[in-house]
Amino acid sequence: MDFLVFQYPMISVQACLDGILLGILFALIAYGMALQWGVMNIINIAQGDLVILGGYIAYFMYLYGIHPAWGVIVSPIIMFFVGIAIYKLVINKVVDRDLFISILATFGISILFMQLMNFAFGADVVLANSDYGTTMLFNNNVVLPNSKIFSAFISILFAICLVIYMKKSKLGRAIRATAQNARAAKILGVDTEKVYAATFGINAALCGVAGALISITFTIHPYMGLPYTIRSFMIVIIAGLGNLPGVAMSGMGLGVFEEFADYILGTEFRIGSVFLLLVLILVYRRFKLSRKREYLK
Amino acid sequence: MNKNNLILYIGILTFGIAAPFLFPAFKVQLSILCVLIILATTWNIQGGEMGYNSFGNILFYGLGMYLCASVQVGMFFPLAEWTESGGEKTFVHTPAQFFQGMAVGLLVAAVVPTIVAGLIGYSILGLRGHYFAICTLGLGVAAGEISGGIEIIGAGQGFTTPPFPDVGNLESRGEFFYFLSFIVLILTFIAVRGIYSTRFKLILNAIRDNEDKAEAMGIQTMKYKIVGWMISAFFCGLAGGIMGGLVGYIDSTDVAFDGREMGVFMVLMAILGGKGTLWGPIIGATVFHIFKEGFWTFFLGWQYVALGVLIVVIVIYFPEGIMGWLREKYPERFGEVVDEKDRKAQVELK
Asked: What is the pLDDT of residues A169-185, one digit of tens each?
């Protein structure tokens, strides 16, 4: 336990800003999660591993001397096809089945990816150095790496582009129609199979962007995937499906929570506190819903 | 039919007692097999029969493991100094102390997880479907992460369980743990078999098939769900306590709360054998363990890749499990009356 954060108010400002910038990234991943959950009704445990894989693509570009920021463009393109491959191989067989089957199947994919990445890239914690420098605020009391600001900016940019795409394009309309009612969409001539594949691909691409940004801003490691899955799941259940401002807000809230947990409880409890928060939120939600149900009776 | 069953049970019992002497090199593997069967069978109580697919039974397993070892050490020596010295030879258990500690430790390891399951049951079991699955997954991982930060049980560096005392015979360690796990396995089997022949099992099945309807029929579903989970927790804790002593070293995320390995294994074994049957998890665990030990060496280092592929393949192509497949193939054996004419008509329709 460390209460430095209460003695020096500037640390809380730092934690808040860090948390918000981090939370925007979480919100981007959660948006992908909400998309596939809403459209295909599956929960993808491998979400976090897709993020880490996207991160490694950017890291490899960095290793070969290309600036890792270009990973923001390359990584989603590669990840889109990875996502479609996963869909064709596994996901299309579990879409109509029991939800638990899809959870278990994607859990298997997650273990597979984790281990393959471990073989391919080694078990070291790595980061792609972007050399963006830092920004000092409030009389040099608050230090913000420019890479974090860059990543938040890019995330917002991608999210806005995607929202516009979903609103205006033909595929976006088809995706939204399928999310509302898959059968009706099929009757009206929407190729739902294609829509599902595209949705999963877009989700994987979003993960790729987020992963590239994470490899620039933070660190990546083959086994770090599951916490990202849990975070995005948590954000989606707080915000609800199809509530974009909610996703952004709860993402930032989660980021701030994590930074404070890091300062107060210590870094070793950071991931633990995220998982515990998930349990608490689910339990809270359960009691809230059960009250509503009794009221309806 | 009943006579056949009796012969089967006696056969298995004889084999179980003779096994460590027939295959002296595989004693540890056989003990692990017993533990795996216990885990799969008890997962099946709420996963298969009740329809609440939990990834979180690893919580009780790890809790039992830590509790058993801590009690065993803490009864005779200061626990903090033990973990600090990394379980070096500063403190040595006498045989009497070891067995006494093990007995009390196993008792605690069984009872405390049961109480924990009862306490958290009301809030957690109110969740349905995938919310329950993800919540329990979170519980398991959170427990691992948090126990990895607690100093008194070794934090990140791990916890060495008391070494087996020198009782003259080199073979006795393996035999002790084998028979311990085998006895617990038999107790588990008797208990589960007893449960499955009562109304309790029917209620669990009713909850699985339609919980709202079961509630409307006047069954207090929440009460039964909690009791079902507590039974699972009881045996998971016991299994964890035995496994801790058997492995000899407890690490928070790699041994105790090993959601990536043990936590998935129990689900996978139950599904492989056939969810919601008495023998399914037992067959599944045996097949899985033989496969794992037999082929893991060929994959050397690629085990987890093989595991991931195995999960996907089993879940997608074989969700009914071995028992489900047998049932489809030989329905007469399961006491189902098949109308030949009806079946032929159906085949022709296809």
From this structure: 888 888 888 888 888 88
Neighbour tally for B277: CB within 10 Å: 23
User: Which residues have a Cβ under 8 Å from the Cβ of B236 and sit 6 or more positions away?
Assistant: B38, B39, B42, B57, B60, B61, B64, B113
Contact residues for B82 (Cβ-Cβ < 8 A; gap 6+) = B73, B90, B91
- Domain ranges for chain A: 4-296
Best of B222, B302, B316, B318 to disrupt the A interface by mutation (most A CBs within 10 Å)?
Answer: B316
Nearest-Cα distance to chain A for B273, in Å, is: 16
Task: Give the C-alpha separation, B201 to B46, whole Å.
Answer: 10
To which residue do tokens 């002296």 refer?
B24
**Architecture of the structural domain at A4-296:** Orthogonal Bundle (1.10)
**ipTM of the prediction greater than 0.85, yes or no:** no
Question: Inter-chain contact A272–B142, Cβ cutoff 8 Å?
Answer: yes
**pLDDT tens, A219-251?**
888 888 888 888 888 888 888 777 778 888 888
Query: What residue spans define the domains of chain B?
Result: 27-299
- Residues belonging to chain A with any Cβ–Cβ distance to chain B shorter than 8 Å: 43, 90, 93-94, 97, 99-101, 103-105, 107-116, 118-119, 226, 230, 233, 237, 266, 268-269, 271-272, 275-276, 278-279, 282-283, 285-287, 290
Nearest to B310 by CA among A52, A107, A91, A98: A107
Please give the model's pTM, rounded to 2 decimal places: 0.85
